[in-house]
Amino acid sequence: MPRAFQIQAEDNVATLMDDAAAGPVEIIGASKSTVNAPEKIARGHKIALRDISANEAVIKFGVRIGHATQAVPRGAWVHLHNLTSDLDERSGTLDLHSGAPTDTSSAYV
Amino acid sequence: MSEKISSSSSRGNEAQINQSLLTSTATKSWNGYLRPDGRKGVRNLVLIVYTVECAQHVAHAIANGEEDTHVIGFPGCYDNAYAIRLMLALARHPNVGAVLSVGLGCEYTQPEKIAEAVRDSGRTAEWFFIQQSGGTRTSVAKGKEIVARLREQIRRDTPVVPMSLADLTVGCECGGSDGTSGLAGNPAVGAFFDLLVDAGGCAVFEETVEMIGLRGHMLARAANAAAKDQLAAAYDKAEKYCRSVRQWSVSPGNFAGGLTTIEEKSLGAFAKSGARPIQGVIRVAEQPPKPGLWILDSVPDEHFMQFGYTNPNDTEGLMDLISAGSQIVLFVTGRGSVIGSPVSPLIKITGNSSTFHAMHEDMDFDAGRVLAGELTLAEAGRDLAALVTRVAAGELSKPEQLGHREYFVMYKHQETPSLAAGCRA
Prior knowledge:
The complex is a heterodimer.
Chain A: E1 3-6, E2 13-16, E3 23-29, E4 33-37, E5 46-48, E6 57-60, E7 63-68, E8 77-78, E9 83-84
Chain B: E1 2-4, E2 16-18, E3 30-34, E4 40-41, E5 45-50, H1 56-63, E6 69-73, H2 81-91, E7 96-103, H3 111-120, E8 124-129, H4 136-157, E9 160-163, E10 169-174, H5 181-198, E11 202-206, H6 215-220, H7 225-245, H8 252-256, H9 262-270, E12 278-283, E13 292-297, H10 314-323, E14 328-332, E15 346-350, H11 353-358, E16 365-366, H12 377-392, H13 398-402
Parallel strand pairs in B: 5-6, 5-7, 7-8, 10-11, 10-14, 11-13, 12-13, 14-15, 15-16
Antiparallel strand pairs in B: 1-2, 3-4, 3-9
Helix pairs in contact in B: 1-4, 2-10, 5-9, 5-12
């Protein structure tokens, strides 16, 4: 079973240590559990450990890393499509897969 | 009882480690090179400094095939105080024994002034203008003669003295980060930095723009009120800078690797600082005034020309750390990298074991073993300390073995007290 690492007990996301297909993911680290991922999640990416509502803080390392832009169900992939920085106004506009800017026609802003 | 460490470096004397002290890296000693200012180097290099892009080819041609000879310089014909400070800090670095400065002959920065500033530090330095020496071939031949003479002199005359972690300044930055950098790569460096600081050494980490979102955390680590003020000022400057350029220190590769926000990346980056108090903030080309843990601020200060980019690439960050006197630099990369550095050996660390195996030619240390449960973070810190010690004793790091010496400097402005009044004629 693919594994995901939870750093602090209060974290509501964990980091995938293996590529995960849709299905169960073993949570290790600060807590032990199994979470069902409805979609595939790549290694290094984040999985929601519980339901997170829109505008709620996303917590990793025990610290707020931004806020959810929509409701995020337990097990979901947490990335640019549903999590945005509290500071960096461009992060919500980046391409989900490549991370490339989409808010400008020029790469040289 | 002593054990000789065999070394593939050109160091004449082989490093010796006292076997009875092997259990304690903190007190382990090896041989280094004593400089006139009392600092100790882990390499004994001749440094060639070009003073304009026009002299760059000749400088590299002189160094080509020469042992223990590295090249730095500044491409601009019009000079820049920040770049001059950085070059002088590298030219008077503990790993450098002697300097040859090469100019074309019509640029602002004068190789003679560079040589004078280096001589003021007690080192031997020579210089020439290409325009006064003939052309490319004659200048290269002349330069090679000088380099051979300088190298012979520093190998003969530099006092060899015992060194330990207490004599080391080690710098660290991360780049090409992925989800493992904050989980294993940077925390392993943090564990090593704690050991280094406890042993009386100096640890320097940078990327204040990658501490965005962590103001409270950072300030809580300040060693004293003065350090807290410095940290607050550096943080506020970095955040203002990022807002003004609409560029936060996150790249497409970071997102592809699973990082989503600058705050998340910051936390992972900050993990390299370990757990000791932060003594304060230094700027590029400044040495930490006392041992302990320091942050290096490379963000440009305000200037009417608005020039300078805070973090244009990984190599610039390494140059900044070396300019602070780091005899060894560490680079943490989850996605992998093939860079090296002139002046100070670079040790490349990854928290991603797949990257380590895929790029084993280039990567020095696999901190991903922590995630696999093969060793604890504390053990990784000790392992890294042992590697740093071996490299300090003369073992070549992977980038050194491969001949990587990437170098980068740009026009920038920082309000730093001047080391010298520039190097104009």
